C-alpha cells in the first residue's frame, strides 16, 4: 500500500495468516453464531489486535502505519474477526493511557446524546448501542460523561445482551445494557472532543478496510473475466467489460489513495482531533460512494454467480455495506465538511482543499 | 494478491507552501483586481506577465531561461492559477508539454531560439493530432511529410486543434511511412511547424459554447527545414508516452471549471441550510481526493517515472467529475426559492454546462483512457 514506512515482512506474515483463516466457509460459520476461537488465538499470538497499544500499556507498540496496514489487510481478506475493532479500541486506550488486560477489548458503541452515566456510588448504568462482536469481548472501553468532563472507562463486559442483530455482513452485534456496573480503570484526563476522536480513528480504519475489500474485489473481477468464456472467448476481451473494470479501477484508486492520505494525517496529528479533518472526511465519503460503485460493477461483470452465497464476492460486498455505515457514513461526513466550509469566515474553497 | 495500481499518499514538502503563497500574492496583485479586463482566457498580455514572474518553463534548465525548479513547484503554481480561473490558456500547452518536448527532441539551435521566447510568455504552441478521419484512432493519421531537397513538405489537414489561430508553432503528427505489419503505430513522426509558413491556412471552428477555440488547419505543400523533425523518424508513438503523462495527470483535469464550484460555495455560505451543506461537503470531499491522486502522479513524474496508466486514470476520473459538476450544482440549488435566472451562480452553471461536453473528449476520450487502464489491468 501507499503508506511510507511500512514493513513488507510484517504485511506478508499478516497476509498469510489472514488468507488462511478468512474463507467463505469461516465467514458463513460466524454468521451462524460460531466463534472461531483457534483462529482468534493465532491472531492474538501475532499481536494484531493490540498492534497500536504501547508495550507499557500491555500492547506491542508497532509504528502507527502498521496498524493501518493491518486494517487494510483485514478488508482485503474479509476476515470475520474483530481485529480492526480491537485496533480502534486500542488506539482509544492509548490516547487515554489505559493499560489493557490480556483479553479481547472492544469499544462500546455510544453516540454523544446517549452517553452512559456514572452513578453516585461510582457504578455505571446505561446502554451501548449495537456493538460489533460485543458478546465475545471480555472487556469494553466506554465513553462516559462525568461531572468533571468526558472520560474513558474500562469495564468488564457484564452487561446483559439484548436485541441481537447482525450487521449487513452477518457479523454479530448486540445491544448491551448495564445496571450499576463497576469499572476496572478510568482515564484521568478529560476528553472534550472524545466523540470526534473516536469517529476520526474509526472512520479511517473503516476506510482502510473498505480500501482492502475494494482491491480484493477488483482482483477477483480481473481473474473472473479472464477465465469466464462466453460467445467463444474470455469475456475480458469484450470492450464493455474492459470499460466496466477500468471505471472500477478508478474508484478503487480513489478509495485506497484517500484512505492512505487520511491515515497519514492521523499519524501526523498523533491521533488527536480538532476541527473536521478534510482528509478523514474525504476518505470516508470516498469509501462510501466509490465503494457502492465498486460493488455495482463487480456484480454486473460477475452475472448471476456473484449473487450467490457459494461464490466469494458476497462477503466483500456485504462488509463494505456494513463498514460504510459505521463511524459516520458518507452523508454524515459530507454534512460535517459542508458545515466546516460555511463556518469559515470566507467561503473560499481552494485554501481549504490544498493548505 | 496483485493490486495493479499504486497511488502513494503524497505530502508536499514544506518549501512548496512558500511557492504557493507567492503565486497567490502574484494573482492578488496582477490578476484578481483587473480580472474583468481580461476578456479572453487566451490572453497574451497575461501570459507575458506570467513570463516575467517566472511562471512559464519553471522546470526547464536555466541555460535556456527556464526556472530550474522542481516539477512539484510547477504543479503548485499551476493549481493556484487554475483555482483563480486565471487566463493562462495562451501559453498553457507550450508550458505543459511542448517546451519539454523540444528540450528532449529538438536541435540545439531550435532550443536556444524558442525556449527563451516560450519562457517570456511570447511564443505559443498548439498540437496537431486529430484529423477529419482520425480522432481516437490517432495512428490512422494521413497528413504527410515528405523529404525534399529543401527539407520536409507537409500536406493534409489537422482538425480540432485548440489555439491554432493564436499559436506561433504547431507540434504536428505527420505520416512519414506506412504502418509496418508488426507495428501499426510505425510511420508517424513529429515536426515543429512555424504557423506563419506559406501554405498553412487556419479556419476557426465555432463551438456550441459560442467561441472558436479549436480550428481546422490545412497544409498545402508547406515546406519546413529538415532540422524541424523532432526526435526519431517514424517513432512518434515512442516519444508520446511521457508527454501524455504530463498532459493527462495535471490539475487542469479537475480544475478547469472550478469557478462554478466556488460560486456554489459562496451560495451555501450565505444560505447554510443542512441539505446544501451536505451536498457541498460531498463535492469538496470528491475534489480533495481527486487532487490527492493527481499529486501522487505528479510525484512519480518528479521521480522520473512514466506512470501512463495512472495518468490516464486521473484524467478519466477527473474529467468525468468536472463534467458532471455543473449538472450537480444545478440539481443542488435549482429548487431553492431565491435562485433565479439573474443569479451569478446561474450564469456560472450555464457557462460551464456549455464547456462540459468537451471535457471527456479533449486529450483522449473516456473510452480511449479506459482502454489504456484495461490494458494495465491485464484485460487486453
Structural descriptors:
heterodimer, A: 355 residues, alpha+beta, Butyryl-CoA Dehydrogenase, subunit A, domain 3, 8-stranded mixed sheet, two-stranded antiparallel sheet, B: 380 residues, Butyryl-Coa Dehydrogenase, subunit A, domain 1, Butyryl-CoA Dehydrogenase, subunit A, domain 2, 3 domains, 4-stranded mixed sheet
Describe the model.
The complex is a heterodimer of chains A (355) and B (380). Chain A is α+β, with helices and mostly antiparallel strands and 355 residues long. Chain A has helices at 8-21, 24-31, 37-45, 64-77, 83-96, 194-227, 239-268, 278-302, 313-325, 330-343, 350-354; strands at 105-107, 116-118, 124-132, 139-146, 149-156, 160-162, 173-181, 183-186, 229-230, 233-234. In chain A, helix 6 (194-227) runs parallel beside helix 8 (278-302), helix 6 (194-227) runs antiparallel to helix 9 (313-325) and helix 7 runs antiparallel to helix 8. Chain A is globular, with a radius of gyration of 21 Å. With 380 residues, chain B is α+β, with helices and mostly antiparallel strands. Chain B has three domains: 15-123, Butyryl-Coa Dehydrogenase, subunit A, domain 1 (Orthogonal Bundle), CATH 1.10.540.10; 127-234, Butyryl-CoA Dehydrogenase, subunit A, domain 2, CATH 2.40.110.10; 250-376, Butyryl-CoA Dehydrogenase, subunit A, domain 3 (Up-down Bundle), CATH 1.20.140.10. In chain B, strands 1-4-5-8 form a four-stranded mixed sheet, with helices on one face. Chain B has a four-stranded antiparallel sheet with strand order 2-3-7-6, with no helix packed on it. In chain B, strand 2 (144-148) and strand 3 form a beta hairpin. In chain B, helix 4 (89-105) packs antiparallel against helix 6, helix 8 (258-270) runs antiparallel to helix 9 (274-302) and helix 8 (258-270) runs parallel beside helix 10. Chains A and B meet through helix 6, helix 7, helix 8, helix 10 and helix 11 of A and helix 3, helix 8, helix 9, helix 10 and helix 12 of B.
